[in-house]
Design goal:
The protein has 122 residues and is mainly alpha-helical. It has three helices and no strands. Helix 2 packs antiparallel against helix 3.
């Protein structure tokens, strides 16, 4: 047979289950971010009606919802990649997705903080 890694006939079930738990955790993170974006967007609508603020179109809420969708897309891609690596007997050493997500979440947190700081005095 040609080059490449041999297929692992029986990868360790603990690694497979850990990969699935990690995937589900990322999905929960994405869903939570989407829910938070929904709440922010609807609260902005409430403020427009109640306090007669000019429409801001709830852009922050939309960005949060989109971020949740993007996290779930990347989580699915990462899960598939790890699944294939496990079944090929390759090590799981790629941490770029986790680092990128952490950095993005920090930036979103800073953005929400700045948004709340700027709108709390109105």
């Amino acid at each position: 047979m040609g080059g490449g890694n041999p297929i692992a006939k029986h990868p360790d079930p603990r690694e497979i289950l850990a990969n699935e738990r990690t995937f589900l955790s990322w999905l929960r993170t994405g869903i939570s971010l989407m829910a938070f974006g929904f709440v922010v967007s609807k609260f902005n609508l409430f403020l427009q009606i109640r306090v007669h603020r000019p429409a801001e179109h709830g852009i922050l809420g939309l960005v949060l919802v989109a971020g949740g969708v993007i996290i779930m897309i990347f989580a699915t891609w990462q899960f598939r990649k790890n699944f294939l690596r496990l079944h090929q007997g390759n090590p799981l050493t790629d941490i770029r997705f986790s680092l990128l997500t952490g950095i993005v979440m920090i930036l979103i947190g800073v953005g929400v903080f700045i948004y709340l700081t700027n709108t709390s005095g109105s």
